[in-house]
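2024-03-11 09:14:02 INFO worker-7 job=invfold-0412 stage=load source=structure_tokens
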């Protein structure tokens, strides 16, 4: 009996000490990763190149193809086991020219607009019509079509400034960009103007994709800045009749061949278990796509680079993916999941960084409770890096198809969101608005999470 208890106790003490040695080793490697990235910050230099030498890169554009070539070349230099492209056909929307003015009692004053992505243009002549202000969708639905017919609807729905996590404000607001234009068309409107889906108080309009409901005519739709929207609101409050002239020549061209860029380091013990992480290579066609999503792209590259440069050999396979066409089609994310199915690949985790390059504080997740608990058991290892939040729900758009097809656990890096929607999809999203250490911290947090899962599984 004594002997049995002794053996039992010994067993406990051995596993406890190997556990604490694991923790010590993990925390030492995590610190090494952090020191390395903070003193090299190659991801920041990569982002400078992507933003300043290639610039914005909407799907189908020559810049998008330059970004593909740059991504492949950058990953080739790291010395991964495999770098390859996945062919994917993408939509090719072009902005063309755009001009607009507000007309009060015959007097025109110019207003800065940005067509919404995938929108149709007005034709060369432009459109002029009375403006109908709608503060929320219920207000529109209560109206009679006679009141809407032939008008330009101004959706004046505000970004809620009271949420600390600004992504909570984005959700309700973004409907007015992607869905509401067709609701206006259904009621007979001939055009739509939206208040930008943005937290910023400045005069930059923010673009972003819309989806037409094909049951109704596709009508032109543009965004105006929050300051211009305030001004327009005041003008409409003061005068009974306000009209608007809009001329846009944006159009959807034929699909273009493009690519996802993929690079991997093979696992030493379980090479069939793949941990995928990435961001999207395409951006909107204004600004430089620095936060959205140049940051995620260079962070994903940095994960592989830090493993190689520190000589860390993952037990499971690491794969960085630079997805194409997240913004106006998600074709790259869908293609990646299709090919994963075709190739019978097993993804144990997918991580996306597509919420900007600011200081990270956690990960949102969509996965079973046991897997979430496994990740949360590492929380104390992240505390020294001010990364503490593991309870929010959410993954990334590009890895959504993996989740839907295979039930793959997905997660997204969560950076501080205070400035993101000031810049997102506008001329403000430029390299200068990225801070070197903040961007590097995102790469560090991603690398540390990838390291833990690559060693311990999920
Ligand atoms: Zn994005």
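2024-03-11 09:14:09 INFO worker-7 stage=emit residues=458
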């Amino acid at each position: 009996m004594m002997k049995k208890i002794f053996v039992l106790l010994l067993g406990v003490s051995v596993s406890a000490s190997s556990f604490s040695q694991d923790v010590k080793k993990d925390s030492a490697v995590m610190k090494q990763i952090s020191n390395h990235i903070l003193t090299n910050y190659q991801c920041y230099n990569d982002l400078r190149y992507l933003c300043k030498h290639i610039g914005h890169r909407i799907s189908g554009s020559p810049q998008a193809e330059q970004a593909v070539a740059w991504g492949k070349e950058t990953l080739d230099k790291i010395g991964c086991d495999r770098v390859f492209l996945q062919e994917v056909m993408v939509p090719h929307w072009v902005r063309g020219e755009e001009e607009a003015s507000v007309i009060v009692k015959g007097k025109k004053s110019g207003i800065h607009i940005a067509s919404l992505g995938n929108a149709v243009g007005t034709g060369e002549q432009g459109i002029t019509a009375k403006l109908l202000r709608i503060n929320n969708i219920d207000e529109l639905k209560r109206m009679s079509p006679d009141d809407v017919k032939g008008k330009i609807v101004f959706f004046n729905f505000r970004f809620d400034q009271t949420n600390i996590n600004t992504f909570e404000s984005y959700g309700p607001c973004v409907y007015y960009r992607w869905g509401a234009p067709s609701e206006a068309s259904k009621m007979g409107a001939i055009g739509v103007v939206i208040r930008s889906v943005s937290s910023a108080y400045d005069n930059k309009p923010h673009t972003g994709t819309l989806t037409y409901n094909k049951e109704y005519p596709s009508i032109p739709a543009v965004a105006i800045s929050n300051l211009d929207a305030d001004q327009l609101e005041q003008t409409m409050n003061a005068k009974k009749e306000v009209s608007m002239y809009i001329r846009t020549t944006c159009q959807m061209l034929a699909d273009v061949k493009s690519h996802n860029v993929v690079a991997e380091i093979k696992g030493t013990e379980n090479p069939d278990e793949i941990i995928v992480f990435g961001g999207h290579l395409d951006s909107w066609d204004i600004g430089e796509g620095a936060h959205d999503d140049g940051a995620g792209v260079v962070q994903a590259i940095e994960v592989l680079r830090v493993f190689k440069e520190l000589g860390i050999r993952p037990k499971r396979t690491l794969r960085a993916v630079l997805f194409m066409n997240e913004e106006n089609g998600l074709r790259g994310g869908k293609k990646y999941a299709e090919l994963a199915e075709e190739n019978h690949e097993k993804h144990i985790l997918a991580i996306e960084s597509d919420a900007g390059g600011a200081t990270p504080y956690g990960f949102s997740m969509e996965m079973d409770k046991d897997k979430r608990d496994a990740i949360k058991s590492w929380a104390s290892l992240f505390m020294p890096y001010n990364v503490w939040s593991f309870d929010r729900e959410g993954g990334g758009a590009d890895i959504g198809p993996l989740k839907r097809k295979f039930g793959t656990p997905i997660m997204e890096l969560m950076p501080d969101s205070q400035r993101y929607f000031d810049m997102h999809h506008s001329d403000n999203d430029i390299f200068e608005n990225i801070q070197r250490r903040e961007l590097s911290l995102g790469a560090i947090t991603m690398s540390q999470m990838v390291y833990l899962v690559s060693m311990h599984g999920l």
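2024-03-11 09:14:09 INFO worker-7 stage=report msg="Confidence is low (pLDDT under 50) at residues 1-14."
2024-03-11 09:14:10 INFO worker-7 job finished
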